[in-house]
Every structure is written in structure tokens, then in C-alpha cells.
Design goal:
hydrolase, alpha/beta, 17 helices, TIM Barrel, glycerophosphodiester phosphodiesterase, 32% helix, GP_PDE_dom, 11 strands, binds calcium ion, binds SN-glycerol-3-phosphate, 401 residues, two-stranded antiparallel ribbon, single chain
């Protein structure tokens, strides 16, 4: 969906990201750009559910559920096994993956197919000729794209911090890891599940599904095959399937049975599959009672941008909650909004803190994120995506008293 990456908060390729000590106005442009349980060996030894990939009902997950957005991406380059591992070690209830395909049809974990900002591809002379300009979901983009690389070629690249201006410390880890395939993640989850004696929950998003289907690289069928191969295709499998395109969720519903979540961007936007099909409905239509009833006919939840739960005023301060959480719950839909981050750059204006740096508020410093969590959790949301799962878990523990 046009504009979804802005809602996601990190923009693409790190372009336009704020410097380390920038005004929050610049940071806004960049933005557009515990309860840890010990695992005993005995528990790990007897873990049939984890081995078989059964997670029980998603309704039995702790609430609010803390979903590690792209892993613990506040601390490690996103969508690396290291980011996923840290999230799990911090105690995250669920770990998120975004999926895009390679030229030879493998699913890899990247927030977008443009890998310019999250890998070292621009520094590889051998791939210089692959730089190109494309239109993806209505956005004109220049860079390097996963669908132009085989998996073997992609595996020669190294991952990088997306927003070094906001997260300079994470650049310590630049160059250490490769892009994971989704199959590697499934194996990692299986291993970690056995070791911990309980399943590792995943939250898996199909990215740009209509665009990729047009290239002959449909995402849903290979995703379903992998879920079947690793025993995660059943209704009680420890995995959520999510997409900004309802059509992708409906297609998945015909292939496999895990719980499904329709992502919702800003109210005025339209899912890209609606744009392609000439369906005039906007997100504003989908969050009305009829729209939610329609979603509930093929999905178990919604993943709205936080602004649909509590809108901001003209000054960027939190206003009054909408009725979305109540309306969704009335139709049996759980609500997993995105994305709360610790840094001032991403917080509502009334939760930013200057820590003595006024009049310049440091974009990369942490604000009063616990205050923001209190406001969002008070709405009754079932879970939340966050780049900082350790903070989210503390806030969730506070909320549940
Ligand atoms: O999938 C939930 C959240 O991650 C949606 O935003 O753009 O970060 O994938 P994005
Ligand atoms: Ca996502």
C-alpha cells in the first residue's frame, strides 16, 4: 500500500533519516523514512508440542502480547537471526518477519524488496549493474531489489542498520550477518522451541504480494509450503499471518489455517490490491462496522497503525482513543497495532523528552515511552509491535499489575 512504510516508521533505505542530534522536525522525516522464563534441560528434553510446531490457541498468549518488530530491531540490524534471537532472549512473546522473494523464488526476510539501505549491496562492484528504477505499489524507487538476485547472490551480502542516524550504536553490528531465509527462521524457531520447551511464536507478513504475483513470484504458495513442511499450517500453529493486502490474507486462508491479521495503514489509504482491482474502499471504510465484519469473515485480527487507535492532534500529541478496539472486539477480531519505539523520533509529541538538550530535542534519545504504553494499553489492545521488546514487556507487566 502506498504510504505503508511511512506508517511503519523507518522509511526506506535509511534515506532521509535524522542525524544523531537533530531537531525533531528532521526526525519526523526520518520516521517517515520481561517476564523471561528460565528454560530447564528437562523441559527442553520433553517438548513434543514445540517439536511439532503446535502453539495452542493464539487466544492463550499473554496479553498484551509483545511482538518484536523485525526482531529486537531497536538493538540489532533488523531482520537478522541475531535480532530475532535477542528478541526471544529478552522474552518477546512473538517475533515478526517480513517476507519478499528472490529471483529463484526463495522467501527471505526483509522489510522491502529494495535492499539498498539494509545491506552492503551498494558497495559491491559486481552488483553495480543491478541498480535500477522500479515502481512498487505506486512508488518510484531506485536501488537494488531482491527479485533481481538469486538466493546464492543475496547470501553474499551483509546486513546493516537501517537508521544509523537514530541508532548509531547498532552500526557496531553492520556487516556481521547475512539475510535470513524464512526457512532458516523456521529451523531456528524449531531449535529454540525444543531448547525452551515451548513453541516460538512468529508473526509473518507478506510484502507487496500483488506486485510479486505480477512478476510470477507469488508469495502465498511458497509460504504455505514452508509452513506445511515445518508443521505450522494448522489452526493451532504458533504463527500469525499478516498482510496489508486483504487479498493475500484471503488467499492464505485457502491454503493454510493459522490465525490471520489484516494490517491497516492510514485511514485515507487503500490496500494496493484494492487499487489494482478498482475496489474503491479505503482503510476508513474497512474500520467501519461493515468493513470489520467483512474482515472477520476471513481473518482473526487487525493490525492497525497506532494512529487509528489514538489519533494525534495537529501538534502531534495524543488525542482521545477511537472506538476501533471496541468495534473490532465486538466482531471477535484481536487488535495488534504497530509500532511503538523508545526513541523521541517516533513518539507522540507529548511523550518526547529533552533530558537537558533543549531547545534541540535529541531524536535518538529515549522519551517517556512507558507513558505512551500506558495510553495505548488502556484502550484494550491485545498486543503491540515494538522495536524494543524488553521495554514493551516491562510496560505490559505494569499494565497487567
Ligand atoms: O506488520 C506490522 C508492522 O510491521 C507493519 O509495518 O511497515 O514495519 O511492516 P511495517
Ligand atoms: Ca511488518
Amino acid at each position: 500500500m502506498k504510504g505503508q512504510s511511512a506508517a511503519g516508521g523507518a522509511g526506506r533505505g535509511g534515506s532521509g533519516t535524522p542525524g544523531r542530534r537533530t531537531l525533531l522536525g528532521a526526525a519526523a522525516a526520518g520516521a517517515a523514512a520481561l517476564g523471561v522464563q528460565a528454560t530447564t534441560p528437562a523441559a527442553a528434553a520433553g517438548a513434543p508440542a514445540a517439536r511439532r510446531g503446535h502453539g495452542g490457541s493464539y487466544r492463550d498468549l499473554p496479553r498484551p502480547t509483545v511482538i518484536a518488530h523485525r526482531g529486537a530491531s531497536g538493538y540489532r540490524p533488523e531482520h537478522t537471526i541475531a535480532a530475532y534471537q535477542l528478541a526471544l532472549d529478552m522474552g518477546a512473546h512473538v517475533v515478526e518477519q517480513d517476507l519478499v522473494p528472490t529471483r529463484d523464488g526463495h522467501l527471505v526476510c526483509r522489510h522491502e524488496n529494495d535492499i539498498t539501505g539494509t545491506t552492503d549491496v551498494a558497495d559491491r562492484p559486481g552488483f553495480a549493474s543491478r541498480r535500477t528504477t522500479k515502481t512498487v505499489d505506486g512508488d518510484r524507487l531506485t536501488g537494488w531489489f531482491t527479485e533481481d538476485f538469486t538466493l546464492a547472490e543475496l547470501k553474499t551480502l551483509r546486513t546493516r542498520e537501517r537508521i544509523p542516524g537514530v541508532r548509531p550504536k547498532n552500526t557496531l553490528y553492520d556487516g556481521r550477518w547475512t539475510i535470513p531465509t524464512f526457512e532458516e527462521v523456521l529451523r531456528w524457531a524449531e531449535r529454540e522451541g525444543r531448547r525452551r520447551g515451548r513453541p516460538v511464536w512468529l508473526h509473518v507478513e507478506t510484502k507487496h504480494p500483488t506486485y510479486f504475483r505480477g512478476l510470477g513470484l507469488g508469495l502465498e504458495e511458497p509460504l504455505a509450503r514452508l509452513l506445511r513442511r515445518y508443521g505450522r499450517d494448522r489452526r493451532d500453529a504458533p504463527v500469525f499471518l499478516q498482510s496489508f493486502e486483504p487479498g493475500s490474507i484471503r488467499r492464505l486462508a485457502g491454503l493454510v489455517s493459522p490465525p490471520r491479521v489484516v494490517l491497516l495503514g492510514a485511514a485515507g489509504t487503500r490496500p494496493w490490491d484494492f487499487v489494482e482491482a478498482g475496489d474503491p474502499r479505503t482503510v476508513a471504510d474497512l474500520i467501519r462496522p461493515d468493513g470489520l465484519r467483512w474482515i472477520a469473515s476471513f481473518a482473526q485480527g487487525i493490525g492497525p497503525t497506532l494512529d487509528l487507535v489514538i489519533p494525534k492532534d495537529a501538534n502531534g500529541r495524543l488525542g482521545e482513543p477511537t472506538t476501533l478496539v471496541r468495534d473490532a472486539h465486538r466482531r471477535g477480531l484481536l487488535v495488534h497495532p504497530y509500532t511503538l519505539r523508545n526513541e523521541n523520533a517516533f513518539l507522540p509529541a507529548d511523550f518526547r523528552r529533552d533530558y537537558g538538550t533543549a531547545p534541540v530535542v535529541a531524536a535518538n534519545e529515549y522519551g517517556d515511552v512507558f507513558g505512551a504504553y500506558r495510553r495505548y494499553f488502556a484502550t484494550g489492545i491485545d498486543g503491540i509491535f515494538t522495536d524494543h521488546p524488553d521495554t514493551g514487556l516491562l510496560a505490559a507487566a505494569e499494565a497487567t499489575g
